[in-house]
Amino acid sequence: MECPLGAQASSTDNRLQLPLPCLDAPFLFIITVPAGFPSPGEDYVEGPLDLNRYLVHHPAATFFVRVSGDSMVGAGIYPNDLLIVDRAITPTTGHIVIAVVNGDLTIKRLDISHGKVSLLPENPAYLPIHIDPAMSFDVWGVVTKAIHFLT
């Protein structure tokens, strides 16, 4: 299956490519696992897990992106992470967004203050992008979840 609005990041500054396939895994279960003392496993089975219901709140307005680049590591977003992006959420200050600036896609934290818009990286090695009226700018969606791969 392929996400209708799927996307995949590919450059060092978190740009995107289309499309990214969706996953269909109907036989998953939610299990709470203690990080302290071990306990019998069946005590923690909560029931079936539907990843779409758990991760996607507005299916018609949601797409996925894969991250490359390290401008958002301070927010816990690392290269190769999978982000869930919701176009139905109105972007406000503090949201991490997928934005288009002069035709280039990027992942940054949105800051709107004193009538000015800026896109802020979460890595001191990168500079903020200050949006001025001469620039082409649009927000594609708000990042709602990050799936971090451990290997």
TrEMBL record:
Q: What is this protein called?
A: Translesion error-prone DNA polymerase V autoproteolytic subunit
The family assignment reads:
Belongs to the peptidase S24 family.
Q: Which InterPro entries match?
A: LexA-like, LexA/Signal_pep-like_sf, LexA_repressor, Peptidase_S24_LexA, Peptidase_S24_S26A/B/C
Entry's Gene Ontology molecular function annotations: DNA binding; DNA-directed DNA polymerase activity; hydrolase activity
Query: Where's the Peptidase S24/S26A/S26B/S26C domain?
Result: 32-143
Pfam families, alphabetically? Peptidase_S24
Domain of life assignment: Bacteria
Q: Which UniProt keywords apply?
A: Autocatalytic cleavage, DNA damage, DNA repair, Hydrolase, Nucleotidyltransferase, SOS response, Transferase
Q: Does the keyword DNA damage apply?
A: yes
- Gene3D superfamilies linked: Umud Fragment, subunit A
**EC number(s) stated in the UniProt entry for this protein:** 2.7.7.7
GO BP annotations, alphabetical order: DNA repair; regulation of DNA-templated transcription; SOS response
